[in-house]
Design a protein that fits this description.
This protein has two domains: about 60 residues, no CATH class; about 200 residues, hpI Integrase, Chain A (Orthogonal Bundle), CATH 1.10.443.10. Helix content is about 45%, strand content about 5%. A three-stranded antiparallel β-sheet has the order 1-2-3. A hairpin with a 4-residue loop joins strand 1 and strand 2. The radius of gyration is 25 Å and the shape is globular. It starts with 8 loop residues before the first helix and ends with a helix. The N terminus is likely disordered.
């Protein structure tokens, strides 16, 4: 780490603790910027101590304890109510968007996968014979392999995507240049046909989660595994993933049935999809 000439031993020694940028008269703070700033200041003083420029203790010591836990505002991914999902898919299919991107978004909805997992999916990850999509740990948020049971419609999408791209194409949903679509592709699609700000591609996971709880009534631990949420207990985590595969296969078929059933054929049910937070559906 380099220091400017002005960062002399005297200046680094004399910095008063009360000058900390983490305290202000209003008592408010922005957690992420404060955390990053604290890390950088701490690195400066630790290096200064190692170089003999400062003899006193690091003035950042204990600041995190004094500040206490940050009050983080819960953020929501805009999402549809599950009662709206069927109409959305009808709208998606009727849109003038590129065929491959329409297939990719419908595949995302049916699998409750994260957008990046779908956009960057190599075709080889899917085994149509076993109807399983095995996503390696390197591509997962939690860095753990995730197996997704594919419903009949999801397999149809896989087959059509392969026909469009060609069997030689590594990606399942490549753009016209054979590269992955950008992370804005689904946002742009929905914006183009009037859904700007109403829903995000990640928000479909929240829709799925609420449907699981309120309509399907599947056990929470099963839907958590379906969303690739990780249990901190490694033994229990491995047990769950092996045990719930059959249940998740049935769950994804029921989800497909719900998504593809016209709204007029569904029973009315309370819909609190907007109550799922970003953390619960991430």
């Amino acid at each position: 780490m380099c220091f400017p000439k002005s960062a002399t031993a005297a200046s680094l020694t004399s910095l008063p603790r009360k000058s900390s940028p983490f305290f202000n008269p209003s008592g408010t703070r922005s957690p992420k910027p404060a955390s990053r700033t604290l890390q950088r200041i701490r690195a400066v003083f630790e290096t200064a101590i190692l170089l003999g420029w400062r003899q006193n203790a690091d003035p950042c010591t204990g600041i995190t304890r004094i500040l206490g836990p940050a009050n983080k505002n819960v953020q929501h991914h805009p999402s549809l109510k599950y009662s709206e999902i069927s109409n959305f898919v009808l709208q998606l299919r009727a849109s003038r968007s590129e065929r491959v991107t329409k297939l990719a978004l419908e595949f995302l909805i049916l699998t409750a996968a994260r957008p990046g997992e779908v956009r960057l999916a190599p075709a080889r990850e899917i085994d149509p014979k076993t109807a399983l999509w095995t996503i390696p740990a390197a591509r997962m948020k939690a860095r753990r392999e995730h197996v997704v049971p594919l419903s009949p419609r999801a397999l149809e999408i896989y087959a059509e995507a392969r026909r469009i791209a060609g069997e030689h194409e590594p990606l399942l949903f490549p753009n016209g240049q054979g590269r992955p679509y950008s992370d804005m592709v689904f946002t742009k699609m929905m914006r183009d046909w009037g859904n700007a700000g109403k829903v995000t591609s990640h928000g479909f996971r929240a829709t799925f989660k609420t449907w699981c709880a309120e309509v399907d009534k599947v056990r929470d631990e099963v839907s958590e595994v379906a969303l690739a949420h990780v249990d901190k207990n490694k033994v229990r985590e491995a047990y769950k993933r092996a045990l719930y595969l059959e249940e998740r296969t049935a769950l994804m078929r029921r989800w497909e049935s719900y998504v593809l059933t016209p709204p007029t054929q569904k029973n009315a049910e309370p819909d609190n999809s907007g109550d799922i937070t970003e953390k619960e559906a991430a």
